[in-house]
């Protein structure tokens, strides 16, 4: 009798556990459905998911720290680690500038596509406001001001004023020309398609000139990079010849003096060469 009661108790406990687990799973799925709009489950949690999210948040400039730490271990000095820490914000500034330039180029290309799309819609018989509504959403050239510009086009607002406000964002300068064409067409009745077509041609020509100039300056940029890597190449050659250049640079007064003077000269040379290239780009 005792054995039978124990079996019954074990069965009841197992059934209660199964019902509890099933209820918790049902509640979890219900919360997910109500919270995320229909996602039933996320599957099993992976232990490396947190590390992947952490790795995605890391930016390339933080690689200066492990590089400095490696040199600090090899040279048995804390100076490379400090140099790596100082290089993090400098490299981050450089990378952010490159990202801004790519974003500006993409925005300029979107403005050109916007002009071409509006011309196509107008020549197909569409109205200016409807053409701007159709093409503006597709190209994304209006950026943060898209809602204001499209609202003005939809409800008869001041489209040129909204386009001029949108043109203040980086890379969207062509929208000011579009606003001028729109204003002239409204005031004088001139052909809007013809004006925007000429604006598109001018913007394409300007983009091609910038691309040609950057292609011509590619050799100068490569020279700057090679000059920046020459000290590293010199250290590698010293190791290849059996010397210990890091110990000489980091653990002797003459080496520290050469390191400071060489670092200042390297920074000045890079700054000078970069300014020359940027001045050529701006011209």
UniProtKB/TrEMBL annotation:
It is found in: Cell membrane. One of its GO terms (cellular component) is plasma membrane. Residues 121-236 form the Type II secretion system protein GspF domain. Keywords: Cell membrane, Membrane, Transmembrane, Transmembrane helix. It is a multi-pass membrane protein. The chain crosses the membrane at residues 67-92, 224-242, 254-273. InterPro entries: T2SS_GspF_dom. Pfam families: T2SSF. This is Type II secretion system protein GspF domain-containing protein. It comes from Streptomyces tirandamycinicus. The lineage of its organism: Bacteria, Bacillati, Actinomycetota, Actinomycetes, Kitasatosporales.
């Amino acid at each position: 009798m005792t054995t039978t009661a124990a079996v019954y108790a074990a069965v009841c406990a197992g059934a209660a556990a199964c019902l509890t687990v099933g209820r918790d799973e049902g509640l979890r799925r219900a919360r997910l459905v109500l919270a995320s709009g229909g996602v039933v489950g996320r599957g099993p949690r992976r232990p490396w998911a947190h590390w992947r999210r952490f790795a995605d948040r890391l930016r390339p400039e933080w690689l200066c720290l492990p590089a400095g730490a490696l040199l600090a271990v090899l040279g048995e000095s804390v100076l490379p680690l400090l140099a790596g820490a100082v290089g993090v914000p400098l490299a981050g500034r450089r990378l952010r500038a490159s990202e801004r330039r790519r974003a500006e180029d993409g925005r300029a290309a979107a403005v050109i596509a916007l002009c071409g799309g509006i011309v196509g819609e107008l020549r197909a018989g569409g109205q200016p406001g409807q053409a701007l509504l159709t093409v503006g959403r597709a190209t994304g050239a209006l950026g943060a001001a898209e809602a204001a510009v499209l609202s003005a086009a939809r409800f008869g607002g001041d489209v040129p004023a909204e386009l001029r406000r949108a043109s203040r964002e980086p890379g969207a300068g062509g929208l000011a020309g579009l606003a001028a064409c729109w204003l002239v067409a409204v005031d004088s009745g001139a052909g809007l398609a013809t004006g925007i077509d000429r604006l598109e041609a001018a913007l394409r020509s300007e983009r091609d000139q910038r691309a040609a100039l950057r292609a011509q300056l590619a050799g100068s940029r490569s020279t700057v990079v090679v000059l920046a890597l020459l000290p590293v190449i010199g250290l590698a050659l010293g190791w290849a010849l059996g010397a210990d250049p890091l110990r000489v640079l980091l653990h002797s007064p003459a080496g520290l003096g050469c390191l400071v003077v060489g670092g200042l000269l390297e920074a000045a040379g890079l700054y000078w060469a970069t300014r020359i290239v940027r001045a050529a780009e701006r011209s």
